[in-house]
Amino acid sequence: KFWNVNEQHIDHTNEHILEAASLLKKQEVVAFPTETVYGLGADATSEAAVERIFAAKGRPADNPLIVHLANKEQIKEVVEEIPEVAHPLIERFLPGPLTLIFKSNGSCARNVTAGLPTVAVRIPDHPVAKALLEACQLPLAAPSANRSGRPSPTSAQHVYKDLHGRVAGIVDGGTTGVGLESTVLDCTGEVPVILRPGGVTKQDLEAVIGEVEVDGALDNNEQGQPKSPGMKYTHYAPEAPLWLIEGNLSFFQHQIDEQRRNGNRVGVIASQEHASSLSADQVQTCGSRQDLRQVAEQLYHSLRVFDPEKIDVILCETFPKEGMGEAVMNRLAKAATQKISQP
Ligand code: TXA
Ligand code: MG
C-alpha cells in the first residue's frame, strides 16, 4: 500500500495514518518519513514483527535497531535509567536527529538490540512520524528503509525502488529535511561517545554538555571494532563504484579524462561551486560548499541518481570535516571503493 500524505495537514486521526497504524499493530512493517531519512517501522515489542524488518532489508541479525518513541515520557518505559548527562541533551535536542544509547530494561524484543544490554532510543521530529507513533501507541523499531548496503532513502520513491513488494506499506511524506541519519550517542559510560556522526554535530552536543568523545573506530574501517555494530558493514553504496577525489579542479578533471580515455562513462558528484567547471558524461550537483547542511540534504539523492544511467564509475569531491561535513564525509568514506588524493 502506498499512502500520499504529502500535501495534507497530518495528525494521528488522519485516515491513511490510522490504516498504516493498524498494519503495524498486526505485526506488519511500514515505511514512513522522519526528519532524517525514511524509516522501516515495526512493533519493537514483537520479535516476529522485528524479524520482518531484517528480512525485508536483508540486514545482518547482529546489527541492532533504533527504537522510535512518540514523546520523552516513553523513554523511561524501555531503559533501566536515564543517566544525569542525558537530561540536558533530551531537553535541548529531542524531538530531533539525535539517538541516545542507554541500558535496556529488557522490554523491547531481543532482536531489536541484537542481544546487547543497551537500547538506542530516538524521538523523531516529523509530523508524519509523530502522527504514526501516536496512532499506533507502540514503540517502533525502525532502521533506514533501504535494502542493506544501499544509500538511505530521502524520498518515498527511494523506498519504493528498494523495498516494494517486501513491505506492507509506504507512507509518502515528501523528501526528508536533514538528509543524513541521526547522530548516535552512547550515554552508558563516563563521557558520552559519538558512535555515528549525524544530524546533531559534535559542536552542538559540546555546547550543551561539554566534552564528548568520538568512537576511535569511526575513521578507520580496518582497525578496531566499532562499538556501533552497523558501522562495520559496507554502506550507502550506489550501483556504480564510487571514487572520492581529493585535490584541485584540474586534478579532478584529469581523473575524469583518464577514466574516459579507458572507455568508461563517468558520473560526477560535485558542489555547485565546482560542478560547472567539470566536464564528464553526467554531472550531479549536491549543494554548496558554503553550506554543508545542504550537501547533507542532497547527498543520498545524488548517490542514487546514477543508478538508472549507464555510468561505469562515479567520481565525487570531498568536503571539509567540519560541522555537518563530519557526517557527510563519514558516509562518503563508507560508500566509496577508493579515494584518490592529489600528490
Ligand atoms: O536517522 C536515523 O537514525 C534513521 C531514522 C529512520 O530514524 N534510522 C537509522 O537506523 O539510521 P539504522 O538502523 O539504519 O542505524 C542504526 C544505527 C546502526 O549503526 C546501529 O548499529 C546503531 O544505530 N545502534 C542501534 N542500537 C545500538 C546499540 N544498542 N548500541 C550501539 N549501536 C546501536
Ligand atoms: Mg541504515
Describe this structure in words.
This is Threonylcarbamoyl-AMP synthase. By secondary structure, the protein is an alpha/beta fold. The protein has helices spanning 15-25, 47-57, 86-93, 127-136, 156-163, 202-209, 249-261, 272-275, 292-305, 325-335, and strands at 2-4, 30-32, 39-43, 66-68, 98-103, 118-122, 140-141, 169-172, 183-186, 193-196, 213-214, 242-246, 266-270, 282-285, 313-317, 338-341. Strands 1-8-2-3-7-4-6-5-9-10-11 form an eleven-stranded mixed β-sheet, sandwiched between helices. Helix 1 packs across helix 4 (127-136). The protein is globular and about 60 Å long. Magnesium ion binds next to loops.
Record the SSE blueprint.
Layout: E1 2-4, H1 15-25, E2 30-32, E3 39-43, H2 47-57, E4 66-68, H3 86-93, E5 98-103, E6 118-122, H4 127-136, E7 140-141, H5 156-163, E8 169-172, E9 183-186, E10 193-196, H6 202-209, E11 213-214, E12 242-246, H7 249-261, E13 266-270, H8 272-275, E14 282-285, H9 292-305, E15 313-317, H10 325-335, E16 338-341
Parallel strand pairs: 1-8, 2-8, 4-6, 5-9, 10-11, 12-15, 12-16, 13-14, 13-15
Antiparallel strand pairs: 2-3, 3-7, 4-7, 5-6, 9-10
Helix pairs in contact: 1-4
The protein binds threonylcarbamoyladenylate and magnesium ion (MG).
